[in-house]
Design goal:
Blueprint: H1 2-22, E1 73-74, E2 81-82, E3 90-94, H2 95-101, E4 116-121, E5 124-132, E6 135-136, E7 148-152, E8 155-157, E9 170-177, H3 181-184, E10 191-197, E11 206-214, E12 218-228, E13 233-244, E14 249-250, E15 260-274, E16 277-290, E17 296-300, H4 312-317, E18 328-329, E19 338-352, E20 358-371, E21 386-387, H5 395-400, E22 412-428, E23 432-459, H6 466-471, H7 476-482, E24 486-510, E25 519-548, E26 551-557, H8 560-563, E27 569-581, E28 584-591, E29 594-606, E30 641-654, E31 659-671, E32 674-678, E33 686-690, E34 693-708, E35 711-726, E36 747-760, E37 763-774, E38 795-808, E39 813-822, E40 830-834, E41 840-846, E42 851-860
Parallel strand pairs: 7-10, 14-18
Antiparallel strand pairs: 1-2, 3-9, 4-5, 5-6, 7-8, 9-10, 11-12, 11-42, 12-13, 13-15, 15-16, 16-19, 17-41, 19-20, 20-22, 21-23, 22-23, 23-24, 24-25, 25-26, 25-27, 25-28, 28-29, 29-30, 30-31, 31-34, 32-33, 34-35, 35-36, 36-37, 37-38, 38-39, 39-42, 40-41
């Protein structure tokens, strides 16, 4: 990867050469600079009428002092409009904001959007669990869908695996809070995120390069080329290469935790075929190799862990504990790399029709292969206590492997998806704007974890020997190695899915000839049909090993009925069909000046599904390992969850657009809310059911103020009051107190200052500082004695960027040099916590420590 990044130095040289060659050409001046790749500023961007489906052009380069707030054009309601005129609560980031805040992809949004929480999945640092307003998913399985929809250029990304990727050429990101069921469909009960990349331009050749060096050997290069081929055809090539070390060294065998190498490519083509047809095609490919972080143990295990209690003393003696962030841990088995490979094709056709109508087609195919190697051991480098999927040659491994050691297995998630969407938009009766459409989606995929492989091994420390060992402490270690038995477990599994979804939708906005046409009434509806199928194969085996002086002598298979393990799954098939109707109503009224108010009612649903971690085949399987008969298993699955939300808001600008004040209040009610919970006393068994009733209330405020010329102060704040009101257990009791929203901080905000403090003919100097705060949030509650073990305390982060921009290095070339720092106070904060490890009641993955870097950005326009 470092070889790939060195190529950007060559590109810089070619860039300078091209700039010098262009010096001989007549200077077009500011008005002649092509629209593509222009540096976005905080000046006002006029909003011009755009046909439905057209991409808004980027704002012009900065040419003067900032005296008014910017205006960002968004497509949150499937048509181009100012974010200030869009009657929903949302955050929008143009390319300038993305650069200033260091947003490279989805994984960076949480620190910049109040009420949004993003956590890595415990088994994969690039599989993201995303929540907005407290609503999200607690697990990541191919049989369970997220509650926040992610869209790339209008294409729905069904799986959360591999989302923590940088994108090579982002133009804009839009985060829509609250249910978006009418226009975006299923799996948007929490909200939606639109990732919009830049379109090619036929205007002129342009290129853009960025080279970044930073802490922990970070080296990143990005390049974008816009190439007009004819007056009607242009292509754009974008590439990204990146390499960075993690912040935790592995003193054991294998790779260092957190190391990351990434490359991504993108090809776009725009063909203005005729006056009645525009065709956009894109292909993107990303290849990420990374090493998962190991959970750092905070608290030794004192709560019940079922059969794990037999080896808890040994597991704890082989683990490392600390309340502060450690910079080194050790794996017992060689730490292996994980990887994600993602590619996709997208075709968008736009065609103006008679009578001012417009037709649009979005078709896409995407493919994902995600290999996840986890190590959940104690960090002490023990080979006697391991929780991983690496090779195992102990006596149990030889028996499970048919005479040979069980091999290294890196579990794989794979998926292919196809989607087609057809839209028709326009105006009826000179007063009704509308968009109607039809949508079809299909995916095939699964999870592969075979052949039979190691999950964990440990040694037992029978309590009956405690008195003897306490009397002669020196015997504990040698006797444990000499004669004590061991325990080992193995898995072999395959999960397959096939899902399809069909929908028709429409949204109509009526502007009556009343109140000077300040009033708009919007009504929307969506009818959806889902079909889901799943096939599960899963076999778990456990063995007792006899050892003398560290040499294995024999292994004995433990019958499943002895320890009430999971059922054997052999071609267990499950299927379900669901339908949903999601209406919405929005009433918007423009006040005098630059202000609008709105009142909206919105609905959405999240697809039903199946839980691959359910230890029971069906309701007929009887009690789980905790002795509770839950009355359902994998086959029954769970049904869709639905939400109804009422929201009122205002968007306004005052003092000649020097002051912006936006606010929204909401009240949402959920029915049949899907909830995953651990089976008490187990390590990985979970049950999924529809929890019942929940409600969520809150407020969101956004302010920005041009305090002085070229100085902008801004604050975004979110308040959230989320409560699960009813969950009925198998005995008919309401146990809602055991099912809190796990990612719903009551308070969160972002405060920033953006100051261009020096301007000249040579360029300008700009400083950006922000503070991001996320309040305390609850975690899983399996039993009352585990309450609070996975909670995350509130924390705040300082980030800064200092830029010398628009430095002329040629007639049409400009250079930006930026110094940046993240987490300047070196705050120690966990991003996720778990409480179900045999050796720990609380273990965490820490957030990124302090980091510094330098960006060099060359633009030729």
């Amino acid at each position: 990867m470092f070889d790939n990044c060195r190529g950007w130095a060559v590109l810089f040289a070619l860039h300078a050469l091209a700039a010098s060659a262009q010096d001989a050409l007549p200077d077009e001046g500011d008005d002649g600079v092509p629209a593509l790749m222009q540096a976005e500023s905080l000046d006002v961007v006029p909003v011009e009428p755009l046909r439905a489906g057209a991409e808004p052009a980027p704002p012009p380069s900065s040419s003067g002092a900032t005296t008014a707030l910017e205006e960002i054009v968004v497509t949150a309601q499937r048509r181009a409009a100012s974010a200030q005129d869009t009657p929903i609560s949302m955050e929008a980031f143009n390319s300038d904001k993305l650069a200033q805040r260091g947003i490279q992809g989805v994984q960076d949004l949480a620190a910049n959007v109040p009420s949004m929480v993003i956590e890595p999945h415990p088994l994969s640092n690039t599989t993201l669990r995303i929540t907005i307003r407290g609503v999200g998913i607690t697990d990541a399985q191919v049989t369970q869908d997220p509650a926040v929809g992610i869209y790339l250029d209008g294409v729905y990304l069904a799986r959360s695996a591999g989302l923590a990727l940088d994108l090579a050429d982002l133009e804009r990101v839009e985060v829509l809070r609250g249910p978006q069921g009418t226009l975006y469909g299923r799996n948007t009960t929490g909200g939606a995120v639109n990732l919009v990349t830049r379109r090619p331009s036929v205007d002129a050749f342009a290129m853009w390069h960025q080279l970044t060096v930073g802490s922990r050997n970070q080296l990143t290069g990005k390049s974008v080329f816009n190439l007009p081929l004819t007056d009607t055809l242009a292509v754009k090539l974008a590439a990204l290469g990146s390499s960075r070390d993690g912040f935790v060294d592995n003193t054991g065998p294998g790779r260092d935790f957190g190391d990351r190498d990434e490359r991504a490519y993108r090809f776009d083509a725009r063909w203005l075929a005729t006056d009645w047809l525009t065709a956009d095609y894109s292909y993107d490919y990303a290849d990420l190799e990374y090493v998962n972080y190991m959970f750092q143990s905070i608290l030794p295990s004192n709560t019940p862990h079922g059969m794990a209690d037999l080896f808890k003393p040994y597991a704890q003696s082989e683990s490392v504990y600390a309340e502060r962030r450690l910079d080194r841990l050790a794996s017992g088995a060689p730490m292996e790399a994980s990887s994600s490979k993602i590619q996709g094709h997208t075709l968008v056709l736009g065609a103006p029709l008679p009578s001012g109508l417009e037709a649009k087609y979005i078709g896409a195919f995407r493919k994902l292969i995600d290999n996840q190697y986890p190590d959940l051991s104690g960090g002490g480098g023990s080979t006697g206590y391991r929780v991983d999927t690496n090779a195992y040659d102990g006596p149990a491994g030889l028996m499970a492997g048919g005479g040979a050691p069980t091999p290294l297995v890196i579990p794989t998630t794979f998926q292919e998806q196809w989607s087609h969407e057809l839209q028709l938009s326009g105006k009826l009766f000179d007063s009704v704007d509308f968009i109607v459409g039809a949508y079809y989606f299909r995916e095939d995929g699964g999870e592969h974890g075979g052949p039979n492989h190691h999950i964990f091994n440990t040694k037992l420390d029978p309590s009956q020997f405690d008195a003897l060992l306490d009397a002669i402490p020196g015997l504990r270690d040698p006797l444990r190695e000499l004669a004590f038995p061991g325990l080992a477990a193995f898995w072999d599994y395959d999960i397959a899915i096939q899902n399809s979804a069909t929908a028709v939708f429409g949204q109509f906005t009526w502007t009556p000839g009343l109140f000077d046409e300040r009033l708009r009434l919007t009504m929307g509806l969506r009818q959806s049909w889902d079909e889901r199928e799943a096939l599960k194969n899963f076999i778990q085996t456990q063995y007792v090993e006899g050892q003398i002086a560290g040499q294995g002598l024999t292994a004995v298979l433990i019958p499943g009925q002895v320890y009430r393990t999971v059922d054997d799954f052999v071609d267990v098939y499950a299927a379900r069909k669901d339908r949903n109707f999601s209406p919405s109503v929005n009433l918007q009224y423009d006040l005098a000046g630059n202000a609008t108010t709105y009142l909206s009612y919105a609905t959405a649903y999240k697809s039903g599904g199946f839980n691959t971690r359910d230890p029971q085949v069906s309701a007929a399987s009887g009690a789980a390992s905790d002795g509770t008969n839950y009355g359902f298993g994998f086959v029954e699955g769970f049904k869709p969850e639905t939400v109804r939300s009422l929201e009122a808001g205002i968007k306004s600008e005052w003092m000649q657009r020097r002051l912006r004040f936006n606010a929204a209040v909401f009240d949402s009610h959920y029915r049949d809310m899907q909830t995953n919970f651990m089976v008490p006393g187990t390590i990985s068994d979970t049950k999924s059911r529809n929890a019942g009733k929940a409600r969520m209330r809150g407020a969101e405020i956004e302010t920005a103020f041009v305090a002085l010329q070229d100085l902008i102060l801004a604050v975004q704040y979110a308040y959230l009051d989320a409560k699960v009101e009813e969950v009925i257990d198998v005995d008919g009791n309401n146990v809602a107190n055991l099912y809190p929203f796990i990612a719903a901080p009551r308070h969160s905000y972002v405060a920033s200052a953006d100051w261009t403090f020096l301007r000249g003919n040579w360029g300008d100097l700009r400083a950006y500082l922000n503070y991001q705060y996320t309040g305390w949030r609850q975690g899983f509650v399996i039993t009352e004695d585990k309450r609070g073990l996975t909670a995350i305390d509130g924390y705040g982060l300082f980030n800064a960027r200092l830029t010398a921009g628009n430095l002329r290095v040629g007639g049409r070339a400009a250079l930006d040099v930026a110094l940046w720092g993240r987490n300047l106070a070196d705050e120690e904060y966990p991003v996720t916590a778990i409480d179900n490890l045999p050796h720990a009641d609380r273990a965490v993955i820490w957030g990124e420590p302090r980091a510094f870097g330098l960006d060099l950005i060359l633009r030729y326009q």
